[in-house]
Write a structure and sequence with these properties.
- The protein is an alpha/beta fold and 249 residues long.
- It is built from ten helices and eleven strands.
- The strands form two sheets. Strands 1, 4, 5, 6, 7, 8, 9, 10 and 11 form a nine-stranded mixed β-sheet that branches. A two-stranded antiparallel ribbon has the order 2-3.
- A hairpin with a 5-residue loop joins strand 2 and strand 3.
Length: 249
């Protein structure tokens, strides 16, 4: 009888631990203002490529995940303040950011390219851009690139969201925008963007986008393993094809 009780207790403990593991909930941080990668639908639900990839990774890790939104300017501090467990919001992997967080392997590759009105002869060399007003989102690779490469030769206008940069472009407050090519690609297909086009070649060809976690967090390796799985089994391609007619991996 005593042995039976021990076996029963051991089984109960095992089940409790298993249930606890399955019940683990992770919070993923997303800006929710950067279509088609992350934004909100008409009902206020967070949608987009980043959200779909995050959900697929959570399914592979066998954990429940919820979304926590954050303004872009404070999104890395919010991660380090433990407001969420990982940040999947089209974040470029840069040396500066590596000082504050750890990144997974890239989950897509991006480019930076200018857009401007179709009827304007817009050249992207330094001499041609001198004195122009260029819009870009604050605290992004595009903003850093403009400041590093053109400095005071340009009037760089920084915005809290990419959508506000587009609004100023259509109202004529800026001459052009420098932003992620694939976000621009999506906007150019919209009614608001139909009179605009890409200008020149991409100024950055290989912008690697990663998922951020807090320094030393073992979640990084779990996310990397899950990413490999969704690429291998075709889940990634299904999500990619939902948003783009070409691979961005």
């Amino acid at each position: 009888m005593q042995n039976f009780k021990k076996v029963f207790l051991a089984a109960a403990v095992t089940l409790a631990f298993s249930a606890g593991a399955m019940a683990e909930t992770l919070k993923m941080g997303i800006e929710a203002a950067y279509p088609p990668f992350n934004n909100k639908d008409a009902s206020g639900n967070v949608v987009g490529f980043d959200k779909d990839i995050g959900d697929a990774l959570c399914a592979k890790m066998k954990v429940e995940c919820t979304v926590v939104t954050s303004d872009w300017d404070g999104i890395i501090p919010a991660l380090n303040a433990k407001k969420f467990d990982f940040l999947i919001s089209s974040l470029s992997i840069t040396d500066e950011r590596k000082g504050a967080v750890d990144f997974t392997d890239p989950y897509y590759s991006n480019k930076l390219q200018f857009i401007a009105p179709k009827n304007v002869d817009f050249k992207t060399d330094k001499d041609s851009l001198k004195g122009k007003s260029i819009g870009t989102q604050r605290a992004t690779l595009a903003g850093t690139w403009l400041e590093d490469n053109y400095g005071s030769d340009l009037n760089v206008k920084l915005y809290d969201t990419q959508e506000n940069a587009y609004l100023d472009l259509t109202s004529g407050r800026v001459d052009a925008i420098l932003a992620d090519k694939y976000a621009n690609y999506d906007w150019l297909k919209s009614d608001a963007g139909k009179n605009y086009e890409f200008k020149g070649d991409p100024v950055v060809e290989s912008d690697k986008i990663g998922i951020a976690v807090r320094k030393g967090d073992p979640l990084r390796e779990k996310l990397n393993a899950a990413l490999k799985e969704i690429v291998a089994d075709g889940t990634y391609k299904k999500i990619n094809d939902k948003y783009f007619p070409f691979s961005i991996y």
